[in-house]
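Hypothesis: this fold can be encoded by more than one sequence.
Test: take the structure tokens below, design a sequence, compare later.
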């Protein structure tokens, strides 16, 4: 709204100024690694869900921007390799994507697919093949440039919503201890 910044700060301090933030002392530590496992739950429905995940570095990891670019190329959006291979080319999935979530102590990279259960084995094979191809392929300058532009435009679009902008500022404060604007 049309409020002076100083008035917002003064009001916030009036209600929270006596909270001793230095006494918290709580710091998250990386959770233990878990052994890879496979879990299957049978239900009387046609759609199956596939989720493959891996722990990655947290919000302060220097590789986070590279991982974000790789994620855009690999599984984020309709032009990604996963989507093009499994949905467009082979028509096997209802939905497929990869995603990255970063926290203060660690993060996750995962792949999700929703599909008809009769196609499970073929879909798993193709996902693992795409992972292998990504690990063995050299990315072109065109692919990297396109991924950068897609990543930038996605961030700009997200920041147009007030809720997402505030969540981003809060994450920077909580995870990095600073404002990342």
């Amino acid at each position: 709204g049309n409020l002076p910044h100083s008035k917002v700060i003064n009001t916030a301090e009036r209600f929270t100024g006596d909270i001793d933030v230095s006494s918290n002392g709580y710091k998250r530590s990386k959770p233990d690694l878990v052994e890879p496992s496979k879990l299957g739950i049978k239900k009387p429905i046609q759609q199956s869900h596939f989720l493959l995940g891996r722990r990655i570095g947290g919000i302060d990891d220097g590789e986070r921007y590279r991982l974000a670019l790789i994620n855009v190329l690999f599984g984020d959006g309709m032009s990604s390799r996963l989507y093009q291979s499994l949905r467009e080319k082979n028509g096997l999935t209802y939905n497929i994507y990869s995603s990255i979530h970063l926290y203060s102590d660690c993060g996750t990279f995962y792949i999700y697919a929703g599909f008809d259960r009769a196609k499970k084995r073929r879909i798993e094979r193709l996902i693992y093949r795409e992972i292998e191809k990504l690990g063995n392929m050299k990315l072109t300058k065109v692919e990297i440039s396109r991924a950068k532009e897609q990543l930038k435009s996605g961030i700009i679009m997200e920041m147009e919503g007030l809720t997402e902008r505030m969540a981003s500022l809060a994450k920077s404060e909580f995870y990095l201890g600073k404002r990342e604007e």
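The chain has six helices and three strands. Helices lie at 5-16, 64-74, 81-89, 120-136, 141-158, 162-176.
Hypothesis status: open.
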